[in-house]
Amino acid sequence: MTIAFVAMPTKDAAHLWNGGPDAYGHRPETKVSDGPGYPCRHCLKNIDAGEELLVLAYRPFPELQPYAETGPIFLHKQPCERYAAEEVLPPMLSSSDYIVRGYGHDDRIVYGSGAVTPTDKIASRAEELLAREDIAYVHVRSARNNCYQCRIDKVEAPAFADTGIAI
């Protein structure tokens, strides 16, 4: 199985960069980074010291429901490129461990799937979870504060095309 680390959609980030309200209907706060500890959820890199950032409430779920966790995240104030190296552990995941938790096709937590996981084991834990029929995707969240970091999806291997050649 192949997995993909998935950043905040660009349409969500653009909404915020263009002055749109966050998940609670508020304008994002602007702050200046004083160094590591401000991971951007769009480029999945840490925001460098001296750079402006947005602090806002984000809900990485398609609709409101009891399990649609909303929490604080950071975003570069100036537009940045969306993370593209999906198969590589994002550079912002620099803590020693994170919560890795599965969600069902109904966007609800799959109970018993969450675990504090060493950073170097995130990919293998996500593969384990995504091999299950009841898990549609995985979140990586802060082990200290439960803040949303990024999503992990299963990438289906492309089927081999039938060339009509007998071997």
SSE string: EHEEEEEHEE
| Strand order, sheet with most strands | 1-8-7-5-6
Termini gap: 26 Å
- What does the radius of gyration come to? 17 Å
> Which of globular, elongated, flat, extended, rod-shaped describes the shape?
globular
Domain count, please report it: 2
Going by helix content, strand content and strand pairing, the class is mainly beta
Share in helix = 10-25%
Protein name: DUF1203 domain-containing protein
Organism: Neorhizobium petrolearium
Pfam families: DUF1203 (PF06718)
How does this structure look, described?
Residues about 160-165 have low confidence and may be disordered. The chain has two domains: about 1-75, 2-Layer Sandwich (first zn-finger domain of poly(adp-ribose) polymerase-1), CATH 3.30.1740; about 95-155, no CATH class. The chain has helices at about 10-15, 120-130, and strands spanning about 1-5, 30, 50-60, 70-75, 95-105, 115-120, 135-140, 150-155. The protein has about 170 residues and is mainly beta. This is DUF1203 domain-containing protein. It holds the Pfam family DUF1203. It comes from Neorhizobium petrolearium.
Task: Please outline what is shown here.
By secondary structure, this protein is mainly beta.
Descriptive tags:
single chain, 3-stranded antiparallel beta sheet, DUF1203 domain-containing protein, 8 strands, first zn-finger domain of poly(adp-ribose) polymerase-1, about 30% strand, disordered C terminus, about 170 residues, mainly beta, 2 helices, 2 domains, about 10% helix, DUF1203, 5-stranded antiparallel beta sheet
